[in-house]
Amino acid sequence: MLRPEKMSKVSVTGSKAVMDPVIETVHDLNRVHLSDYDGSWEGFDNGAPRSDADDASEKLVTVRSLESILDVDEDDAGPSRIVTDEALEEELEDIRTEANELDDRRNDVEAELREVEEEIDAVEPFTTLGVPLDLLSGYDTLHVAVGQGDPAAVRAALDDSKAIRAFDVETGDELVAVFAYPESNARESILDDLLVQASFTRTDVPDAAGDAAEYIEELRHRKQQLESKLSTIEDEIDDLRLDAAGFLLAAEERLTIDVQKSEAPLQFATTESAFVAEGWIPTEEVDHLKAELADAVGNRVDVDEIERAKYRDGHATDTEHVAHEDESSGKAAATDGGVVTMNDSPPTMMENSEPAEPFELLTKMVGLPSYDELDPTFFIMLTFPAFFGFMIGDLGYGLLYAGAGFFLYSRFDSDAIRALGGIGMWAGAFTMLFGVLYGELFGLHVVGEVLFNGSPPMHKGLQPAYARYAQTWLFVSVLAGLAHMTLGYFSGVVNHISHGIEEVIYDDLSWLTMMLGLWLAILSKAAEGIKPAFLFNTLGGEGAAYELGYTGLPEWAAFVGLGMFALGLVVMTYGEFQHMGAPGLVVGPLESVNVLVNVLSYFRLAAVLLAKAGMAFVVNLLFFGAWEDSKGGWHFGTGGMPSQPGIEYHHYEVADIMFGGLLHGGIAMALIGVVILVVGHFAVLMLGITSAGLQGIRLEYVEFFDKFYDGDGRPFDPFGYEREFTTED
Question: Residue 145: left (phi > 0), alpha (psi -120 to 50), or beta?
């Protein structure tokens, strides 16, 4: 659909005695987007949460904490169940006690395990010193230092010092142990001072005795014990997770619903005895809401449709007030006799066909459509995959894109990733379609040979023999830009018509008139000699890629076009003048250049097409080799290579051998070539996403959306819950 669903604002008014059953009924319906009361009505205050709100919130925090401790996943849930108040008290407490006890035990073991591992790492370097650990400390007069440094430099520093009577230096793979006996009158820090000169860095000595290697064996044995103990605890936690997961997921859902219902009065306007709740609901369901509330509380509430977002020619305009016999409903009356309502715009509930739904992701990346503008998702579905497929145009790459998209769509639960998968499948399908038309499979012309006997209906234009096709795609890019932007301007007309005909004329039709007028002049034969030839000779005339009889518009189109451009420029500039005053007289003409620049931006379609074709050609050239015939055609050496230029090969006269190909250079070169072939095509595949994908999105966002789309809507978020793990009480 091109617009959100039609929405109405409803007001529910009644005494506080029936507020709870009203909340229950509206929540179960799950179709009303509640409006927030801002406290502006005289005599009305925001409602207070129900008395059970704090208890439900605390239990919800507990449940989510337990789910984190036990690593509960939605896949662990069993069948839907009823969660009673008794279960939330007793069963939840039992699970909490056991889970916390297991978590504490796990934390203790993990902490001790970390200490053991750190001690093993600290002692490991001492194993090659050959000195028992208890001999490295604990002396009164003998000074000992262990660390890292150059043994020769250490010996030299101690030798040169008169303050050291005797010393010994022991070395290991990583550490150096220094034993020094200083003179009786030497300062306490003498050894440290000398070692600083030798760039010696101390290492702490472990508080242990005996051989370091034996001590490490003890530590490793202790580590194994702790790991076994930890594994046992993890098994107990896993058993508890399997037993409790279904209950915890159901309890979380039940408590989430309880919290929603308990805090709902915060959005209501209330007095000591009455309440007023307002919200937006799809117009077609207003009567259903009234019937459900009547069944629940009879005639003890008043339900009024007070606003309706109306449409003109299928497009949403400003909301309208819906009159009723009794408009007071307990609320303060406006001075004009209407009722005061909570001031909020209708939320947006996007509704697109299933094929278009993945492209909602691209729309939402800019912003949700507001209620009074078109939803461009359907337009994106029609244009983005076509742009992408046109730029890549290869059956092999298309199959991989579609396959990757299907993998994402089918293997992940995330809505965003599934949407990317859906977009990938669409883009892959169009890439395959254009790949068949171009006759290419991973840059090779296999499809064209098989399906079209070597003459596919389209060529990318990379080869000199088909250069006219490259020029054709430049012209087609211009036409695509004009069509795409025209659609954007007309969408702007639809969006802005409700704001008045003047805004449509100044903001949309003036720009459309300028664009079409300028390009009528450009595409006319007037001053043909100074214009690019591809504007006139690609779709008609001698040497045209496609003989469609078009060789340019008649010269009089230039005068019509320039008149249209001038008219549009005057109207647009006047609109800018009304909007910003005198500066608008300068801004308008400066901005008018966009009707040229924006269309030229679509040249990127042809540019990326040629760039990706060139990259695939280079990869295949390196592996298969290629040669050129006398007519400018290029041929890969998939079945062999001609020996030299000037001979006839496969019914063609060989003009030049471009590259012999690694495939034909022996086994070693062929193996290297296979690596280049695979890596090269993978690079082209990835760059296709970053170039064709990003360029296509840019055309949508910058050139197309800019003409009509703001994307400042707010999502339709109904008061309710889609139950998955619980059933109704």
Answer: beta
